[in-house]
Design goal:
mainly alpha, single chain, globular
Length: 499
């Protein structure tokens, strides 16, 4: 594909971000010189492009460099989980688990399992990126399938299907809180229903599952070709039957995993309920539990890997354990370098105000079309997908767009719940094709563990079909929903009448 050829001719992703920073600095300087600006939809304050060559921004860059790097959103999640996952991998437990999981099973069912778990895994927020995506590579390799196809399927499910789920979660609470603020501009008494997208998101799950399944098995994996190798840094064979000692190790690891789960259950429902915020609003009470999932996966991998290794002999003492954790971190060197430059690009983009202005002007352009409400919903899907290429955070974009789009669509007879659903479809569908998405460099690193020559263009090329068809499927679902006048969620409606 042309995208793959052109993309792979680009410099190393580290230097690509360096060049993007240079371009960003130039654009910000030009925009500031010509006074480019937009009115903030909430405060009505004029937001102007700020030159990154200004004294204030240069000072921020130089004085906040350690903070900018260490506060990079996915960095902490990734390193914490990988500390535990490194033990689970180096001890040989992951290899044994993957071989046990595929023995006697049809290879064809792996893709729908990965896709289902990926979309449901969004309830665990960012933990799904650093847990399920790399594990999917091992699962596919253990079955003799191309591991990059497994990574692609998991990435498409976790990120492209970010809003498709069978259950409401923390993202619903977060986005509907912003929706409520936007709706109150027009109707001060309007109250959010965090289950207002439940039905349409569940329907989206049933559409995305076969879409990801078909694209992975019929388009992406044939393009990648047959898999004949194995990971260069994984311990043990990923093929073959399990030995008795491995089975014994897995049984003990299973008991250890059950113990970790029971601890989390006690922390959730036991006295004091430290993982439930009893003083918060109902939609926010489970936030501590959701935020603890990264720590839960760390302990799950660490303890089960340790127990397995102690039984099979791959971990003889605590020094072996520390050595395996250190070895896991040594493999993260490239990602740390990449995260350093990516974190500064994201920070500079925010400091320049270019992302804010793109979002605001895009929403104003959509409003100026004067199209009927249902058609505007489809336009909102496309607009959000475009803006997502420049502003990664789902909540940050909605905080900017909701004050404009929610009242506007309410006046056109479209409910805030339906506007939120359209936004979520557009936002998730292009997550998987923009290098500005904070987890994109990490996914690239996962792919390169299995295919050393796998480049930025290669990743973009295999994810474009997912992005395109997820957006098409989501947009068609919006059209069908409106045509049949179906409720987007309990107590919610497509239409809204302003009295």
């Amino acid at each position: 594909m042309a995208v793959e050829r052109i993309g792979n001719r680009l410099p190393d992703p580290v230097f690509l971000f360096v060049w993007l920073v240079c371009v960003l600095i130039a654009v910000s300087a030009i925009g500031s010189t010509f006074g480019l600006s937009a009115a903030h939809p909430i405060t009505k304050e004029t937001i102007s492009v700020v030159s990154l060559l200004s004294g204030n921004n240069v000072g921020l860059l130089l004085t906040q460099m350690p903070t900018t790097f260490t506060h990079f959103h996915p960095l902490g999640y990734t390193l914490v989980v990988m500390l535990g996952a490194g033990v689970a991998e180096k001890s040989g437990m992951l290899s044994a688990v993957m071989r046990a999981s595929v023995q006697g099973r049809q290879k064809i069912i792996l893709t729908p399992i990965v896709a289902s778990v990926g979309m449901l895994g969004n309830l665990a927020a960012d933990a799904a990126y650093v847990v399920l995506v790399p594990l999917s590579g091992f699962i596919f390799a253990a079955a003799g399938r191309h591991p990059v196809a497994g990574i692609a399927a998991a990435f498409a499910s976790v990120s492209g299907g970010f809003s498709a789920n069978l259950f409401p979660g923390q993202l619903d609470a977060l986005l509907f809180g912003i929706t409520e603020a936007g709706a109150e501009i027009l109707v001060p008494s309007w109250q959010a229903n965090i289950a207002g997208n439940w039905y349409i998101m569940a329907a989206l799950f049933t559409i995305y599952l076969p879409t990801i399944w078909y694209l992975t098995d019929r388009v992406i994996e044939p393009r990648l070709g047959a898999w004949t190798g194995k990971s260069a840094d994984s311990e043990g064979s990923i093929q073959g039957q399990l030995e008795d000692i491995e089975r014994s190790g897995l049984r003990r690891a299973g008991l250890a995993a059950l113990g970790v789960v029971l601890v989390w259950v006690v922390l959730t429902i036991g006295p004091g309920t430290p993982l439930i915020d009893q003083d918060a609003l109902p939609e926010s009470r489970f936030n501590p539990l959701y935020q603890s999932f990264v720590a839960a996966f760390f302990f799950l991998f660490l303890i089960t890997g340790w127990v397995y290794g102690a039984r099979t002999g791959t971990i003889s003492n605590h020094r072996d354990l520390v050595g395996q954790m250190s070895s896991a971190m040594s493999g993260m060197g490239y990602y740390l370098v990449l995260a350093f430059v990516a974190s500064h690009f994201v920070a500079l983009f925010v400091w320049s105000n270019l992302g804010l202005i793109i979002a605001i002007e895009g929403a104003e352009l959509l409003r100026a079309t004067n199209l009927p409400g249902p058609i505007l919903l489809a336009g909102l899907v496309v607009l959000t997908g475009f803006i997502n290429l420049f502003v990664g955070s789902a909540s940050a974009k909605w905080a900017l767009l909701a004050p404009i789009l929610v009242p506007m669509l309410m006046l056109l007879g479209i409910s805030p719940e339906m506007a939120t659903a359209a936004y979520r479809i557009g936002d998730s569908s292009t997550n998987i094709i923009t290098p500005l998405m904070v987890y994109f460099p990490l996914i690239l690193m996962f792919c390169q563990r299995w295919s050393k020559d796998f480049g930025l263009g290669s990743l973009m090329a295999i994810m474009i079909p997912y992005s395109m068809w997820l957006m098409v499927g989501g947009t068609l679902l919006i059209g069908v929903w409106v045509a049949l006048d179906l409720s987007p969620g309990p107590g919610a409606s497509i239409y809204y009448s302003v009295d």
